[in-house]
Amino acid sequence: MADLTGGHLAARTLKQAGVGHVFTLCGGHILPIYDGCVTEGIRVVDMRHEQAAAHAADSYARLTRNIGVAVVTAGPGVTDAVTGVANAYSARSPLLLIGGAAPLGLRGLGALQETEQVALLRPVTKGSWTVPETRQIPEVLTTAIRTALTGRPGPVFVELPVDLLMTMMEDRLAPIPTGYVHRERQAAEPDSIQRLVDLLARAARPVVIAGSGVYWDDAAKDLAAFTERGGVPVFMNGAGRGCLPSDHPQAFSQARGFALGQADLVLVLGTPLDFRLGYGRPPSFAEEATVVMVDSDPVELGRNRPLALGLSGHIGLILRQVADALPAGLSGRVESWRQVVRRKESDSQARLTAERQSDSVPISHYRMAHEIAAVVDAGTTVVGDGGDVVGCASKVVALKRPGQWLDPGPFGCLGVGPSFAIAAKLLHPDQRVLLIAGDGAFGLNGMEMETAVRFGLPMTVIVGNDGGWGQIRNPQLSFFGEERAVGTSLPFTRYDRMVEALGGRGVQVTDPKDLRPALERALGSSEVWCINVVLDPGAYRRTGQVSMAI
């Protein structure tokens, strides 16, 4: 028996759940949790903003496929973190946000930083709770963790009043539950598998969309086995990127619009039919296409488009079932369709060749992406945080493994980059981490480069600096003209000098020939680097592309 504070009980519960780091910004309401973390050997990573702490915990969850934890103080600490929680909700990331709160006895009296937090977080979480007494801290936390990890993953919130965290009690009176998370892998019914096999066997132009659910279910090997047996072209989005290596014969990226518009069967794995897929409707999908979805969340099945078949379960197990039942020779039968898609893929890449190899000054977005692609290997984790700059890179940078590419996800939240990179480096210190940031996005949480310096986390950020919010400015110019383009310009700030002021290293690049040497030097360094690349604001529009997500 031992006497523990509520803060120590909270830390011990996290430790038992496999948490090695918590991300935070300090506040008096949560100091007892810090003290417990010191005792339990949990590393406290203090960030410069609560939003950044939530983003870091989100990244930690994605990379571990386990709970990621942010601990923030009451009131503005919690409200600052809401954006990070909302982003995790859209990305299906099991983030646990722990928020401090005013003492129970002072509720409603106007205590410091008092606000209604539980209701605030409820719409963007799978569950939101307050703890009514100290002995229930382990029970409520483990309930939250179980909720976050089971079924469709997602964020949760637990409010811990400061008086409960400071209360001492015997550990035997507040036992920490064990064996409380059970993620049994659900296979599909044999009849449903046979229906899917029959649909695939009849299809002349099948396509697979592999989304984040493939990553969360750790189903990359199953996806490869299925597509190699069936020969179906695969396009990846979200965290699904990298689940097939970019050089896999069935992996495609640039011909997706053509393929979906021509496909007679679309198999959607672990991704919603949202704006990224045109809501599954014409003209993005062919009018007469047969659509099948497999997802851990049955609520997604049939949203936005009627399905021929919807399967809820573990994507890896279901792909295994289908692969085992596919008739021999199916891959050969769709070979001509694959060749058509491959030609479209090659044509799309060829159209970018001139921009990728351009020596023009200011530098083209695609030339920057080209040089990035040349230095990214299987041991490099790439974080994308921006609009057009990241969009260009995603078309060019080849990926070798699941989890190699991190971006905000469907919420489109800018500013995640430094936090995502910090978590990646903490978890995998032997891997190189490259953050690709737009100049607008980098401004949101760029102070976290100081966090990286302070914790000795060598990483490289390459800022594509086109002097504006390009993804919004370009369509603004097209729709309204130069004379009415307001609110979308930025100065060509020396972000390299900013990072130097924070204790890192920096260099500004204006000549494309200097890009690769700068990247190689930075990525080979044991320091935090910023490469500030001056881009041509009009280069992206020269390729005929204007992007604005609506």
Task: Please explain how this structure is put together.
The chain has 550 residues and is an alpha/beta fold. Helices cover 40% and strands 17% of the residues. It has 24 helices and 20 strands. It has a six-stranded parallel sheet with strand order 3-2-4-5-7-6, sandwiched between helices. A six-stranded parallel sheet has the order 11-10-9-12-13-14, with helices on both faces. Helix 6 links the parallel strand 6 and strand 7. It is globular and about 70 Å long. The model has no long low-confidence stretch (mean pLDDT 94).
Q: How big a fraction of the residues is strand?
A: 15-25%
Largest sheet features: 6 strands, parallel
Rg for CA atoms: 24 Å
Number of helices: 24
**Could you name the ranges where pLDDT drops below 50 across 5 or more consecutive residues?**
none
Shape: globular
Count of beta strands: 20
Class based on secondary structure composition and strand pairing:
alpha/beta
Lateral strand order in the biggest sheet? 3-2-4-5-7-6
State the end-to-end distance. 58 Å
